[in-house]
Amino acid sequence: MALARFLQFSDLHLGRPFGRLPAxxxxxxxxDQQRVLEKAVEEAIHxxxxxxLVPGDLFxxxxxxxxxxxxxxxxxxxxxxxxxxxxxxxxDPVTALSPAWNPRxxxxxxxxxPAHVHVFDQPHWTSHEVPGLPGVRVWGRCFVxxxxxxERPLAAAMLTGVEAPAPDGLAIAVFHGSREGSCPPxxxxxxxxxxxxxxxxxxxxxxxxxxHAGSRLT
Length: 218
Prior knowledge:
By secondary structure, the protein is α/β, with parallel strands linked by helices. The protein is 22% helix and 17% strand.
């Protein structure tokens, strides 16, 4: 079986207003958020991972401020950054009004994601092969609206067209959703999935965002 190294993070919520905090504290939190993204890319380069997985809510809202968007693009554009796979979540969905994911809006701002950044911009599963790792594919799907969804991303009907990996390959799922039975008090259930659906899916590993607390199913 292929040996692959990934760095995963999600729910950074860049651009969150932190409206209840004093102005000086808000500034510090914004710097902390940006430093987290910088540190993630630094670690990915240092650890020589094969890819960075971002399962949703990189940004806090659809309307991303241009300076913040430019910062994110430049951070991923630095030399040595491995391929990046982003599956937009419910806070930063793929819509016609999103300056982060709409190519025409990006072009109008003279911005573009680096070629090694792959954004899953469809609400159904699509995939990319990881460069240099034959047989290893990253599958992803996105949110297309900032609303709660009852759609089950790992239901059998949703997995039509998803190919199971070869015996010596890997299939990595990157998506935003809610593991049933593990919802923290401050979170809402959206795009739910069950442990049984995980076990039955064709994916080797599931990189899931949404909850702001770690949860692992082995």
